[in-house]
């Protein structure tokens, strides 16, 4: 495996706006960094575990039964669009929005399995940067590298959310933020929707 190429792939796929980053940012804006840390840790550890699972068998299953991967993509798309709507319509002074409390570590880990972008990245990493004769050590190394890169890149989004909180002084501003976050989350799902629609034509 070309470590430099894989590292660049991991950074590019992790630091760019996507469901994980947007959810982290939204959580920090509403609950602060400290209360968002469990979700942050769930994402950091959840994705490498997902990559390990795919590298150790799920990818072969998807190749044999492509419809399973398609079903997971569709379920993930519907879930994320639902989250986008909840975020966009969340009331600043109410607990009736996306969450009554921040996501837990387990919630962050489970979120990876409902995140179509995470599926695409994990499958792309396994199929592009590993081979049948490379052994399990290669998959484990990839997971460890993603753990480190994800922790660093997501921490930048934590900081962005923390820095942005000081500029929010009214419910009107928070409603605008909620609408923007919801729209960004929906937009981040569009490439996956296009991919699914293309596969069906």
Task: Explain what the structure shows.
It is found in: Cell membrane. The chain crosses the membrane at residues 38-58, 70-88, 139-161, 173-194. It holds the Pfam family LysE. This protein is mainly α. It has one domain (20-168, 182-199). 82% of the residues lie in helices and 0% in strands. It has helices at residues 3-15, 19-64, 66-88, 105-113, 116-129, 136-165, 171-199. The longest helix is centred in the first third of the chain and has 46 residues, at 19-64. It is globular, with a radius of gyration of 17 Å. The chain starts with a helix and ends with a helix. Mean pLDDT is 82; it is low at 93-99.
Radius of gyration: 17 Å
Contiguous runs where pLDDT drops below 50 for at least 5 residues: 93-99
- Estimate the strand proportion: under 5%
Straight-line distance between termini: 35 Å
Structural class of the secondary elements? mainly alpha
Tally of distinct domains = 1
Gross geometry: globular
- Share of residues in helices: over 70%
Number of helices: 7
Largest sheet: none
Order of helices and strands: HHHHHHH
Arithmetic mean pLDDT: 82
Number of strands: 0
